[in-house]
Design a protein that fits this description.
Blueprint: H1 3-22, H2 28-66, E1 67-68, E2 71-72, H3 73-101
Antiparallel strand pairs: 1-2
Helix pairs in contact: 1-2
């Protein structure tokens, strides 16, 4: 769940809790059922927040692994690919020149 979805869920729970407090004509059994449902939703929200935080920690750990010694390994790999492509292009040009000369 995204942070925005968690916020929306949290706001809905609070709005429902407020409605329950303000509702005077609701039977006690109905109120208890609604309160139990709210507690279930709160539990789901806490679980989702926990999962969200765990994923953020995993992402941070992965980012740390990618950046080693102050050098971003992704950028280094991209640079190596560019260099390799330049070498291949140079080789093709040299082969074409050799063919033309002979």
């Amino acid at each position: 769940m995204s942070e925005a979805e968690l916020t929306v869920m949290r706001e809905r729970i609070e709005a429902e809790r407020k409605r329950l407090r303000e509702e005077k004509d609701m039977a006690q059994e109905e109120r208890n059922e609604a309160e139990a449902l709210l507690k279930k939703h709160e539990s789901e929200l806490k679980s989702a927040q926990s999962d969200h935080n765990a994923m953020r920690q995993k992402l941070a750990a992965l980012e740390k692994k990618i950046i080693v010694g102050g050098e971003n390994l992704l950028e280094k790999a991209e640079e190596q690919v560019r260099t390799l492509n330049q070498i291949k292009a140079y080789d093709l040009i040299m082969q074409a020149i050799i063919v033309l000369l002979f």
